[in-house]
User: Fold this.
Amino acid sequence: MLVKDFISQVYDGTGVSSDDTQISKRFIYNEVKPTRAELLKQELNQDRLLDGSLAQNVTGFKLLRGDISQTTKYNTTEVLISEQDIPQLIEYDKGLALFSVYTMMGKRIVMTDKNTWFSKINRRNVKADSVYGFIDKKKLVVYGFHDLSEIEVDLQGFFYDPVEAAMLSAADNCENMEDGQCKAAYDYDMNLPGHIARRVTEMVRQVVFRVLGVPLDNSNDSLSDAALGRPQQAQQQSHDNQNGN
Assistant:
């Protein structure tokens, strides 16, 4: 589903149009991001979605040879450091939701943390083809490619801002296109399991109603009351009038 289609689903049933300056598309999307992140975090904590089938891919993420001694006490130049910061990843109980990192040639980079990486490379028997990566100050650091000055990798994970991550993938293509050929921000995909997408939609709608000052009911039929844009009391009064009470 495209981000703009998801935003339209939130608008549906609220009586608000995308032209409303108070409830703009940006407002909706800024509410979607933390709600989506929290629900995904809950799923990941339950050991669901860990296969990465619904994760987002960032392709062509460039790494350049660098000196990690500027960011850590370990003095070595045999590392590649990402040219740009990694988009913010969703964090759950077991760490960051970065499931895999592959080179363009299909070589998998084993992700670890900085201390574990230092322990691994200082072992007496280190495999010659061992390639490790970790995140340091928002940069992806990769060790093991001693004869490369730069490389591109694909990242797979759940990012806090799917639009930011998608635009990072598309950046190189956009630079080579004529003006106006690049996608608009909300024309990118936002993959979510159906049950999470529905919950995000309903929860963000509730935020819209609170901003508009529409009273919400906590009873079992509260969602239908909210969808009509009026409190339950008004519905009851209409029902009574129809019955002559």
User: Anything to note?
Assistant: The chain has three domains: 3-52+162-213, 56-157, 217-245. Residues 25-45 form the longest helix (21 residues).
